[in-house]
Amino acid sequence: MEGLTKRFVICKDERFEFLVEDGIITACKDRKIHTDFVYYNTEDKDND
Asked: Please, are residues 32 and 15 in contact by the beta-carbon 8 Å criterion?
């Protein structure tokens, strides 16, 4: 892990990186495919 407590990166198997912001995984990166993080959809969905 590297970074600040509110924003840091977790590395897995020398291939994947996960960006954690405020305790939530907000993006991931597959180092073999991407050079930038791919952010998850963070929009709140209405389940009415």
From this structure: yes
